[in-house]
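Journal club side-thread
Mid-discussion, someone asked how the predicted structure for our own chain would compare to the paper's figures. Pasting it here so we can look after the session.
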Amino acid sequence: MSASFEANLDWARARDAADPLRAFRDEFLIPPHEGHDGPPSDSRPLDSQPLDSVYFCGNSLGLQPRAVRDAVNAELDYWGELGVEGHFKGRLPWMDYHEFVRDDLAAIVGAQPSEVVAMNTLGVNLHLMMVSFYRPTKERPAILIEAGAFPTDRYAVESQIRFHGFDPASALIELQPDEPNGTTSPAAIERALAEHGSRVALVMLPGVQYRTGQAFDLKAITALGHKHGCMVGFDLAHAVGNLPLQLHDSGADFAIWCSYKYLNSGPGAVGGAFVHERHAKAALPRFAGWWGHDKTTRFQMGPEFVPTAGADGWQLSNPPILALVPLRVSLEIFRRAGMTALRAKSLQLTGYLEWLVQTQLADVLQVVTPTDPQHRGAQLSIRVIEGRDRGRALFGYLMEHGIIGDWREPDVIRISPAPLYNRFADCLAFAEAVREWSRG
């Protein structure tokens, strides 16, 4: 792959011009940057107008699809014109609105439509899933998470352990990284479960680790967890819309995710959950809500909760329509682009970015993320060789020059080329900015 890469703008622009997905960039609003000296947008002339920033932060907040504004306004119009009847009338009646995102969401995560639901936010969904799938006993009280897990997961897991009357000091087991850059080998997971598996009630790991960018093998982890008698769930916040997923085939008991990163659904967007079909009608404990009641009898308002079969049965309340609109718009873009094509472009973009670091910036930067493309998504986690203070200085320089990534403590800059809107020229602009900074 790297043999064809070149570190010059003509090459990068030629690759961008030949990109079959290039038109999707125009479907997003790219934040402008005054004084940005990188490559201009192909659609923006060189005049006094601000140029596009180079946006590499889709792993934290995806860009706004242009179609979102009209789609939200359409629902506002229905509300104004129809009032309560908007639940039953209009192009997409609100009563069934969460179902209008279900098929596209299932396709992205590799699930049966009945196994997924768009609801709540990631932290809420994690708690709801643990009510059902973390059933600790005196003999098996523990939860296995990765060391350095994102605080949402750490706080939720610890609080659930305490809620059930156990002590996190003994019931929270942290999987320690065993590779030089802070990543974790499959052997480390095997060792942890060999040692602790008989005590573990739930294995709760990420699809992509937020700090290192390492992607985990969901199917292998699930098989290993089940072998030891554990339930297995995944936080896919950094995997959904980034990697091709096969949740149904993985056999995972559940998964949760947010939709504001690679799924481009807006700040605080409605999250999602997956529950494997083998649990569709299982008599699992859960926190029940009216909207999770069987749809055919919901409005009989009976006193007994009868859950809808499948993931819908974990819903609590009716979905927020105005918050679901951006997700529906973004998922329609994903459907047209296709995850196979997006992943192919992502491999090329991130591969080019890595090649630039290795061949042009090896004296300045170190890549933390695994070099094997099958063990990562779009994100490269990068450290400045000279240490944290220099890393912060570089991060500030990049932001000042319109190259937007993000910083994660203690010393990582995350740069994530999103294939829907990033270009080879963007990767080159990053490399050139780093080189310019290093010379200063």
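Post-session note: Residues 36-48 have pLDDT under 50 and may be disordered.
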